[in-house]
Structure formats: structure tokens, C-alpha cells
Amino acid sequence: MIDLQKLLATLVYDPKDPVLFNSAFFFYYFAVFLFCYLAVAGSKTGRVWVFTLFSLYFFYKACGYYVGLVMLSAIVDFNLSRWIFKAQQRSLRVFLLVFSIVINIGLLFYFKYTDFFIGIINDVTAGHIQPLHLLLPIGISFYTFENLSYTIDVYRKEFPPVDNFMDYLFFLSFFPKLMMGPIVRAADFIPQISKPYTLNSEDIGKGMYLIISGLFKKIIISDFIYLNFVQYIFDDPSKHTGLECLLGVYGYALVIYCDFSGYSDMAIGIARWTGFKIPPNFETPYQSANITEFWRRWHISLSSWLRDYLYIPLGGNRKGKVRQYVNLALTMLIGGFWHGASWNFIFWGGLHGVALGVDKIRIDYLKRTGKTFNGFSKHLFKVLGILLTFHFVCFCWIFFKASTFHDAWALVHQIVYDFQPAIWFDLYQGYTTVFALMLLGFILHFVSAAGGQHTMERAMAKVPVWGNVAIMVAFIWLLIQVKTTQPMIPIYFQF
Amino acid sequence: MPANNRSAHPFIIIAGTMVCLLALSFVHSSFSLNGFTFRQVDMLADVKMDEKPHPTPKQVLAAKKTADSSQATGPSSIPEPDHHSYDYMTYTGIQEYQDTVTTAPGMQHFLNALQDLKTGKRKKVRIAYFGDSMIEGDLITSDLRDSLQTQFGGAGVGFVPVTSVVASFRTTILHTFSKNWTDYHFRNNPPQNLALGLSGHTFLPAAESWARYAPVHRHGLDRFDEVYVFYGPANGGNVIINGKPYTLSGDAPVNELALRQDTTQQSVMLKYEGGAPMPFYGLSFESSNGIYVDNFSFRGISGIELAKLGKGMLQQMQQQHPYDLVVLHYGANVLFRPELTDYSWYERPMQRVIDSLRHTWPQTSFLIVGTADKAYKKTDRYITAPGVAALLKVQHELAEQHGTAYWNLFAAMGGEGSMTHWVEGDTTFANKDYTHFNSKGAARVGALLYKAIMDEYKQEVHP
């Protein structure tokens, strides 16, 4: 009944089948890993080796022999940071730091951006340089930034470099954060390696809650809405009415949040179960009342990285107003480009950079005049702020998601000139489940407060272990039902 | 280990869940409740041996097709027509059928017309290309037109309606219009005495209704030369076209105002100035000779709707603006349930449509384009919908019965599984609905059809 060849095939790298936390493969992998990890729980060296070997295998399974890149960059940065630490002369320290930055950014550029620049050169010079069509090594954007923050921190003498290479490789390859982050700082992570592997009921409850809510966000909300509605709209916006396009954009706002934060939640939950605390990466970002607040609550590990290693070194707010705006715009442009090699991402980053600059003016104005709002007007401004921020972010998502500028403007065009609200009832009938889930997603997002989450976590912490098994089985059974439903066929409305 | 250390719990939870789910995979856990079927849990789906049912004849056919089309992966590699096999499911060229009713069986009339055009015996050849959302925005037809005009001459997009839902995305003409036209069409019950135009639309103006057309910067489409305005019965309706007033009259179902574009003007602005109320159909942009492909797209229809076109209008149209080939390209909206395989409900009314069209335009060649591949998600993969083969059978029968030509787009695309390939391949040729082509895919289909037509033409010229 079991096909041995197929079994072996699932164990090797398959470019068509990336490892996802919501795959059956990961489930088996995680069980075997936990078993081995538990067996060596008493020894720090044992834990580091088991975890690192499993993580490297995970890398291999996800991106084949690119696993070598992680090991190579670990070797380079481990040694460079030690030399930086030991070097007495300032010039040597600077040289080593620049060398490390060039190597890391160079590697990232080579794999991620070469074709983009070849395209630009071809466009400008009407040349015909062959693009490389490189496969992007999974996680490279994340571990490059982790390497950089580590060497820069050592250079800034914020902490001494690690003595043990295996500890550094462990930090860099830590599988829960491999695919989609969060970007973890060595300073937060490395001290946790030596702590004994013990978990209390709070760890169990928190991990359980994060894994389940992450799966819920990813599969029940994000994947379902995307597959059954949002992808049709973004595929060819001109074929859909403005109302559909607008709902498609709202849907995408939820899809990207649930997909990304769901994945982060799972990563943080899995890390928690293995004895590592990683700070949250998202804090209900669409509740933000202004764009500055949004960036404190959206992809926190990236925005704080950009702040600490790009915005502040550029001069931050210390070199006058004009420089501050330039720094903000530059940081966001680069942040946009980090998401992918296309003008769309750069434009998306630029829009956010400009908005952050405008918001700075507002904040400075309020500070200067000492204006505050109270009572009703305070609440009104907050609600208006949330609505405005959410819609601005949604507008930017159009450019983030659309495959070309042409498509993005086509979508905007449909919303502005071809709204056709009269079809709402047909639309509702065609996509009832999708809209119900979207509504549920937004309600959960906007009413969710820290209180509700803590109650759930505490409840899961109190449940005996067999109870958690029952919860997990029931939940995964539900996921299977949602995952295997036949996708809805898109509707093209006549008028 | 401290007494309250729960570091074993994650393992117990994950391993326990795994054991339970594995147990569920072995028992029959699928059941129905309130019409919703809960699916079987199968944790071993990835590693189980494939169950091999006996291949059905259709699967054998499908396997053959995949082998035939395995080289058809790049846009440049258009498959050679398989002249050895005339199986309607696999043949990638045009098949022609004879009939006794009309004087224009198969493609014969059209191919003669092409030859006459080439040798200068006639000035114009026209194709009426009817379809659904697959061709809207001039998809497929613009590429076919471009290739044919390069080969046989002619410049201009041909027919354009007064208003259109996809006007802003049609890249072959710039088309804008006022919002106050009333559009009667196949789907909204026009008044009894109002005839529909060939596009399936008739437009009634209100005060100061206007429509504006401008050429685009593309080869053959960058200027207007001959402009025709088609309108219904009128008794002195006033229009202003590029500043010049005209009074439109005529009692035929279709009347035509022929204009020559003033060389100082780039665009055409048509404005209704009152007078007797009158219906408009659209404009046609042509040059003095060559071949024209008119795009008659209507979103969401199956082809049955063509029955609503009046005989009088069709006959009049053929006198004023004769078509040498009619292409009927439908199927996407017939396959609305992928697993449906009985299309007799479609065959009967479509028989009447084709029969009536053939009798009304007896001199014209007809080409039925068999449906494109359409995939749907079955368990975890996108596969060709079982309805595709069933619909192709019906469409082929329609061609055979009425002595028209037949071109199997499904086979030309690469047969079984080709839509999945077109969506998921390195270059994307179709949308995520696994039904519609994007502009790249449409261009590829246009090229495939052009090649199929030219293969027939070459056989005709040098048999």
C-alpha cells in the first residue's frame, strides 16, 4: 500500500513542492524532530546539533543545494565578526565591516536582483543580455539581514561575538523562521541557546494558540479568499467591475495580512514549543490610526531592522528636517525593494515613504502647537484615522500585488470609472462563503484585543495534554475539509 | 527534570494528533450532512501507491494527444497539423465538411475569396468573428487580423459598437462614449419592434449622446480611412460627425452611411443632435481594400443567443457589408459545470442557430471553433474538465451536420492538460481561472488559428 519510491521522493528536494508548515510532510518532520530533540534535551551540545541538523535538512528540502549558502554565510560572518571584535585599528574594523556588508548584500543582489538590473540595462541600451533566471534561495532575504545585524552589532560593540560556530549556525538556520521570518536578532536569540529546555504550561498554551491561530489565518482565511476570489480579480482587473475590484483589494489586504502574520505566528509558536521566545511580528496592524503607527505594528522585525540599521545610520532625525524626510523616503524605498525585484515594490515603498513624511509633519505640528483632542472629537479622529490609514494601505497593496503597473492602474480605473454597484446582489450570491469569511476575518481583526488572546492562551494552558491532542485533531480535520473544497469558478458579470 | 516541566508536551500533542489522523485515514471517515460531503482524511496521500484503473478509451486518446503535443511548450513551437490522423479530438488543423443545403460548404468560398483578393479580382474580404469573453477587448481577433492583413492587405479594426464594457481596455482603438446611450442587447429584453444589430446590441441615443473613436499607434491601426456608420430604421435623425451635420434616414433594418475620413482629422466624433429617434449599431473602420476581421464579443453567452438576430437585419447586412467567413467561437460559458458531460441541451438550440444562419447567408463559409481546454481543481491538482471532450463532440457534430469547417482549439493548444500548462508554465498564457487567455495566450491562439487557415489556403493554391 505504501509506495517506497514515493516515500523516498518526498524526502528529497522538490522545486515544485516547497515545505510549508501546513503540509503533511511538515507534520511528520516536526514529530520526528521533537522526538530527537527531547532525547537530547539534557545536553546543550546535543540540542544545538540536533536542531541545526534538522534545520539544515529543512533548508535542503526547501531549496536543494542552496543550503550551502546558509552554511557559507555562517562561516564568513562568524569569522568576520570575530576579527572585527579582535581588531585594534579602527580602519581594519571598518574594512572588515564593509567587507561583510559587501559580501552579504552582494550575495542577495546576485540572486535576487541581477535579472532586474539586466532588464533595466536591456531597456536603456536596447541590448539583449540574457537574464540568468536564477532560482531565489529560500530565506536569503531574511538570513542576509540577520547576518548584517549581527556583524554591525559586534562592530558597534553592543555584544561580543559568539565563541562557538555551531551556536551561530544554529541561530542562522533555525528552521521555524526559515521561510518567512521573523528576522531574529542574534542578541535576543543566542543567550537563549544555553538555557535548559524546560517548558511551563504558559509556553504550551501560547505555542498551541499561536500554531492554531496561524493555521487558521493562513488556510481558512487567506488561502480560501485568495484562491476563490482575490486571484481572479488581480489576474485581469479589466474583466471585473469596480465593485468587484474594490472587494478584491479589501480581500487582498486580509489575504496578505493573514498569510504573512499567520506564518509568523506559526513560526513563533513552534519556536516557543522548542524553548525559544521570539517577539511578535504583527500587532493587529489595520487597527492603526496613522501610517507611523501602522509601521510599528506591521512586520515589526523588518521595520525595526530598517530603523536600526538603515534609517538611524543614515542620520535619522538628527541632521535636520529635510534630511529626515530624505532618510524616511530612502529607507522605505529600500524596504520596498527588499520585498522583491520590481518597480512595483519600489513604488509601493515610495508611497509609504512619502506618507510617513507627511505624517511626520502632522506629528510635528501637533507637538509644536500642543494640540490635543478630547472626548468625542478624540474618538472621531481615531476612527477617521483608522479608516484613512486602512484605505491608504489598501491603495498601496494594489501596486504591491498587481503584476504590472498597467494592471494596477486598470484596477484603479475600474474602481473609479466602472464601479457598477447594482451587481452587488449577484456578486453576493456568487461568492457568499468568500464574503462571509472576509467579514469574519475583519471582525476578528478589528475587535481582537490582547485580552481575548490571553484568555485563549490561558485556556489552552489549563487543558490537559490529551485535551490539546483532541483540539489539534479536530482543528486539522476542519482544515482538511476547507483545503479540499472545490474552488469556486469565477463569475464574469455582464453589466 | 523539574516536576512542572512540560517539555514533552509538544511531542505528545504532535505525535498524538498524528496517530489519530493516521487512524482516521484508515477508516472510512467521509460522510454527508445537509448536502455537504465531509471529506476523507488521508495523511498518506503523498506516499500511497497509485490506484491504476483500467484505461478508458478516452484516456488512451488523451495519452496519444499528450504525446502529439509534447513539443508544443513554447510560444514559437506551434504544433504541425497532424495530417495523418483526422480524428476530430486530436487533429490540429481545420476539418471541412460537405453539405447539400448551401452553396458554400466548408471553407471553400472563403478560400476562393482570399485567392481573388490576392490576385486583385476583388477588393475586400470580411470575417465576422463571434465569441464570448474569450475574445473581448479584441483578444485573439486582433492578432488574427494583424497577420491576415499583413498577408492579404487592408488596414483598420473593422466593426466597433457604439458603447462597450471593455472599451477602455481594447488596445486596437481608443473608444470613449457618453453614459446616456441606452444599450439593448441579447440579455435585457429589447422592445418588440427594435431589431438587434449583428453584435447583439442596439444603442438608442438620448439628447447629445456621443461616441468618439481615435486610432492607436500600431501598424495598420494608426489612421482612419473609410468609415461606415450602421444604423437602424430612421426618419430624419440628426447627427454631427467631426463637425459636419448629417440627417440619417432609411427604412431598411440596417442602413449605412459611408464616409471618407478627412485627412486633417485624426479621430471620429459622432454626436446625436436630436430629430427623429433612431437606433444605432456601430461603426466600421476600413481602408479601400484588403481583409477585415470584425470582433463580435458578448460576455457570458454560449452562442444560443444568436437566435435573437433577425433575418431581415442579417440579409440586409449581407447585401451592404458582406461577410465571407463566419467564425463561431464559444464554449467557456457552456462548461460552467466542469463535470457535466451531457450537452444535448446545448446541441439542439445551437443546431437551430447554425441552420438559420446557414440559410440566411448561403454564400458564406462557416468555421466552428471547438472549445479551448478548461481545467478545474480535482483533489489537489488542476486537470482538464471532463466536460471538454463531451462539448467538443457536440461542436464537431454541429460542424458535420451543417457542412461547416471545424477547428479544434483544445487539440491545437496541446490537448489534455494544456490549460494547466498554459497557466502554470514558465511563461503564463492564461489566467488563474484556468479558462481565459491573457494577452500573450490570446496572441498565441490567434497565431495558431492563422496558421490553420493558411495551411488550408496553401493547399487550395498549391494542392
Automatic annotation (TrEMBL), chain A:
The answer to whether keyword DNA damage applies is: no
UniProt-recorded name of the protein: MBOAT family protein
What are the annotated GO cellular component locations? Answer: plasma membrane
Q: Which organism is it from?
A: Chitinophaga agrisoli
Report the transmembrane regions from the record.
20-41, 48-72, 92-111, 132-148, 168-187, 208-234, 337-358, 379-400, 428-451, 463-480
User: What keywords are annotated for this sequence in UniProt?
Assistant: Acyltransferase, Cell membrane, Membrane, Transferase, Transmembrane, Transmembrane helix
Q: How does it sit in the membrane?
A: Multi-pass membrane protein
Protein origin, superkingdom: Bacteria
Pfam families, alphabetically?
MBOAT (PF03062)
Q: Which GO terms describe its biological process?
A: alginic acid biosynthetic process
> Which family is annotated?
Belongs to the membrane-bound acyltransferase family.
Cellular localisation = Cell membrane
Q: Mind listing the GO molecular function terms for this protein?
A: acyltransferase activity
The family database entries (InterPro entries) matched by this protein are listed as:
Ac/AlaTfrase_AlgI/DltB (IPR024194), AlgI (IPR028362), MB_O-acyltransferase (IPR051085), MBOAT_fam (IPR004299)
UniProtKB/TrEMBL annotation, chain B:
Which GO MF terms does the UniProt record name?
Answer: hydrolase activity, acting on ester bonds
Q: Which InterPro entries match?
A: SGNH_hydro, SGNH_hydro_sf
List every stretch annotated Disordered.
52-84
Outline the extent of the SGNH hydrolase-type esterase domain. Answer: 285-443
**The name this protein goes by in its record:** SGNH hydrolase-type esterase domain-containing protein
Which source organism? Chitinophaga agrisoli
